[in-house]
Amino acid sequence: MPSLSDLLEGALDLLFAPTCVACRQPIPTRSAERAVCAACWSRSRSLPSPRCDRCWTPLRISVLDLPPSCTTCEDLRPAIRSVRSTYLLAEPVRSVVHALKYGGWFSLARPMAKRMASVEWPDEVREEVGLVTAVPTSRMKERQRGYNQAALLAAETAALLRRDADCNLLERIRSAGSQTTLHPGERRANVAGAFRLAPGRGHRVAGVHVLLVDDVWTTGATALSCADTLLAAGARAVSVLTFARALPDLERHEQRLEAAATFRRRKN
Ligand SMILES: [Zn+2]
Ligand SMILES: [Zn+2]
């Protein structure tokens, strides 16, 4: 028989339970987190293994290719030390990012950063990082939204990692416009030179290993353009941390498998 406190909790849940931003199911009142339910966090996927040690790109293993080579690293300057993303950009992670970016759910930054701060790094990166900063958004977008989602994530992550944060280190000189329809090469050209160091901030980056934070790594064009700006301003090294990483090839592959499975189910 349920106890009085169970009944009371059930009644409170009915009246006040918030709904999860990803699955829309009610979150029990006793849950520590009020925006994403425990089930959605537990079904959020990491990037598939095996991964490149340096940039965490999932590697295709072939017997002809030992050790396996990483095509993403071919594009990275040596001073880009390490790249990490907490999750694969797929549901429910995609809905969480969307809620932070477009839904006004700025309180999501803390639980998201909690997961970002627990990512594993090579020892030298963990020891060396001296400053955390964020990919800047355009002034117009920040005015519309009231915040820069990357800056919120960077500030929360820095606090958890006990590192200094300067989320206004970089400025966007020009808006790159929407990048969603551009190919990787076009994206790189589109954001090249789109950022600069904010006036009077040179002393903050000189000789420092900077951790650059963003919500999503799609092709890496934006983060790498920011990293170029930091390195040109005297940073010793840059590492990149994002909450999610898009892997379009994997997504297309999984969609094809899903479509084939649905076809087989209908046929039987
Ligand atoms: Zn949920
Ligand atoms: Zn790599």
What's the helix and strand layout?
Elements: H1 4-16, H2 38-42, H3 71-74, E1 80-88, H4 93-102, H5 109-117, H6 123-128, E2 129-134, H7 139-145, H8 149-161, E3 164-165, E4 170-172, H9 184-191, E5 195-197, H10 202-205, E6 209-217, H11 221-232, E7 237-245, H12 248-267
Parallel strand pairs: 1-7, 2-3, 2-6, 6-7
Antiparallel strand pairs: 4-5
Strand content: 15-25%
Compute the CA-based radius of gyration: 21 Å
Instruction: State the low-pLDDT regions, or none.
Output: none
Which small compounds were modeled alongside the protein? zinc ion
User: Describe the biggest sheet?
Assistant: 5 strands, parallel
What would the principal axes of the Cα set say about the shape? globular
User: Mean pLDDT, nearest integer?
Assistant: 89
Q: What is the CATH C level class of the largest domain, in words?
A: Alpha Beta
Distance between the terminal alpha carbons, to the nearest Å?
44 Å
Structural class, from helix and strand content? alpha/beta
Estimate nothing, just give the exact number of structural domains: 2
The percent of residues in helical segments reads 40-55%
How many strands appear in the DSSP assignment? Answer: 7
Element-by-element helix/strand order = HHHEHHHEHHEEHEHEHEH
CATH T-level topology of the largest domain: Rossmann fold
Please tell me the CATH architecture of the largest domain by its name. Answer: 3-Layer(aba) Sandwich
Strand order of the largest sheet: 1-7-6-2-3
Task: Specify the number of helices.
Answer: 12
